[in-house]
Amino acid sequence: MDKNLIEVSDRIERGERLSEENGIKLLESSDLLSLGRLADFVRRNKAGDEVYFIANKHLYYTNVCVWRCKFCAFSRNLNDSDSYTKTIEDLILEVKNSENGLSELRITGGINPKLSFEFFENLIFSLKSAFPYLHIEAFAPTEIDFIALSSGLSVEDVLIRLKKAGLGSLAAGGAEVFSPRIRREFCPKKTSGKRWLEITKTAHQMGVCSNASLLYGLTETVEERIDHLIEVRNLQDETGGFNSFIPLPFLPENTKLFSFSGSTGFDILKMIAVSRLMLDNFKHIKFLWIYGGLKLGQTALSFGANDLGGTVIEENKGVARSAGAKNFGFTTREELIRTIKRADRIPFERGVLYQARN
Ligand code: SF4
């Protein structure tokens, strides 16, 4: 084992919380197999051998976005020929065409000033009325921030009304990396990391749970990645409202940052392992297979991950696909189950709150 990992490894075996300094040592190490072994040890003790997945569908209501983050390949200007804003009827039809066996709808979109609060409220209400058995996970904290600012309502009032309309939980997204330096450089118009955490805390206190994520592979430092994980861990200590953590590798294709090299399999597995080791108050660390493929996902199950994401019907116009993810589309339950079983783990089809599916 890398000698710089020995002290951290002892702490992990004693079940102690890791410090920022420990986290930096983990991320700076190239001893991937030792990181994997430690993360797998923690995963087994904390989460057991089940590997979770969900039958879900992603819905994008608009790709118009006035924030235009440099790392985003999904957003468009209002007048671009391929910009779109869907009607509520369009979205209901999209779900009808693929609803068979779904548990969850995940709804997100760009920051489009043409959309009023009533649109968002009606969207949730109409989908929940049409599909009462589906859990609706919608809007990242950044979208909630925009909805509140543009409507003049407080974040609390927005969440009360959306919850009443049928909102079940908030979508992951918009967290990127909290570092103000990185946000200034790559997404200066976006909600700050501090505000993202405040909005998420408000939602959790109102009983609206969510997921946390980290977008990595921009120019953030090792310290900035670890600080991000510690901020998320602190909020989880306070509210317990995160269901899972999702490390997201930056995909440069079709973005303004296309010259970036993108994360390798080594980077992706290391980030999964370090997330598992730093986030001692998260049971679920998710590898989203659309970002790295099922084969790498299967390997990630030995590096701390215990969730492969969803069947993700029709991601093909979505965020990952726009950025060149090669694994867009959907997979089947059978394929996910086969992938998990071949890794000698137990497949578990979950609901949004990690409960067994009826
Ligand atoms: S990442 Fe989100 S906020 Fe940023 S440009 Fe893309 S859609 Fe807009």
How is the secondary structure organized here?
Blueprint: H1 6-13, H2 20-28, H3 32-47, E1 50-54, E2 56-60, H4 88-96, E3 104-108, H5 117-130, E4 135-138, H6 141-151, H7 155-165, H8 180-186, H9 193-205, E5 210-216, H10 222-239, E6 242-249, H11 265-278, H12 289-300, E7 307-310, H13 319-322, H14 333-342, E8 346-349
Parallel strand pairs: 1-7, 1-8, 2-3, 3-4, 5-6
Helix pairs in contact: 2-10, 3-11, 5-7, 6-7, 6-9, 9-10, 11-12
Bound molecules: iron/sulfur cluster (SF4).
List descriptors.
single chain; three-stranded parallel beta sheet; TIM Barrel; binds iron/sulfur cluster; alpha/beta; about 45% helix; about 350 residues; 8 strands
What does this structure look like?
This protein has 358 residues and is an alpha/beta fold. It has one domain (47-349): Aldolase class I (TIM Barrel). It has helices at 6-13, 20-28, 32-47, 88-96, 117-130, 141-151, 155-165, 180-186, 193-205, 222-239, 265-278, 289-300, 319-322, 333-342, and strands at 50-54, 56-60, 104-108, 135-138, 210-216, 242-249, 307-310, 346-349. The protein is globular, with a radius of gyration of 19 Å. 50% of the residues are buried. The model has no long low-confidence stretch (mean pLDDT 93). It binds iron/sulfur cluster (SF4). The site of iron/sulfur cluster (SF4) has 12 residues, from loops.
